[in-house]
Every structure is written in C-alpha cells, then in structure tokens.
Amino acid sequence: MSQLTQALIEVEERLNSLLEEVQRLRPYVQSLEEENARLRRELCALPQQETERVIANAQQIQGVAHDNLERLYNEGFHVCHLHFGQPLEGGDCLFCTGFLMRD
Ligand SMILES: [Zn+2]
C-alpha cells in the first residue's frame, strides 16, 4: 500500500469518527435549542421585574448540581426558574417536576 493511500485511509477514519461524534451530539444540541426557545417564550410573557428575577434564578440553578436540586425540592423548596429557593406551598410544582424529570 502506498503512503498516500495509507494517509487517505487515516483521513477517512478520522472523518468518520468526527461524523459519528456530530451525530451523537445532534439530539443533545436540539434539546438545548428547544429548551432555550421555551425559556425565551416564558420570559417574554413575564413583566420586567419578574424577568430579572428569573434570569438571576437561572444563574443560581446552573451553579447547583442536579442531586442537590433534587434534595432541595424534596425538602420543600422550588428549584424551577420561576420560583427558585422559595418554599413549596400547596403540593408539587409543575415547573420544578418538569425540570427535575428532564435529566
Ligand atoms: Zn417550582
């Protein structure tokens, strides 16, 4: 086998593994984009003051590990973007459960 053929085979292998990687990531990227769009829609529906609170909550949530969020929720606190850190009143919160179930 010539050196050129060998080099081409290696390039082809690398391209294939890159392609596999891209295909593996695609659904993940798509779900992030959907989530992003959903959050944007939710944010637009809120008054300015609420919007700022939700953004601050989102930043806080990003810094907390999923296990800890679950524990926080089980201890009776919201972990959703809308009411993060506030006590749960009157049973389950749909935003919280939706958020926890996704991962
Ligand atoms: Zn909640």
Please provide a brief summary of the model.
The chain contains four helices and no strands. With 103 residues, it is mostly helical.
Walk me through what this model shows.
73% of the residues lie in helices and 0% in strands. The chain has helices at residues 3-44, 48-62, 66-74, 94-102. The longest helix has 42 residues, at 3-44. The chain starts with a helix and ends with a helix. The model has no long low-confidence stretch (mean pLDDT 89). The protein binds zinc ion. Zinc ion (ZN) binds at residues 78, 80, 83, 93, 95-96.
Global geometry = elongated
User: Per DSSP, what share of the residues sits in E-state strands of 2 or more residues?
Assistant: under 5%
Bound molecules: zinc ion
* Number of DSSP E strands: 0
Q: For the residues shown, what is the average pLDDT?
A: 89
Category from helices, strands and their pairing: mainly alpha
Helicity range:
over 70%
> Mind describing the biggest β-sheet?
none
Stretches where pLDDT is under 50 for at least 5 consecutive residues are none
Terminal CA distance: 49 Å
Number of helices: 4
* N-to-C series of helices and strands: HHHH
Rg value: 21 Å
Tally of separate domains: 1
| Multimeric status of the protein | single chain
What are the defining features of this structure?
mainly alpha, binds zinc ion, single chain, 103 residues, 4 helices
Secondary structure layout:
Elements: H1 3-44, H2 48-62, H3 66-74, H4 94-102
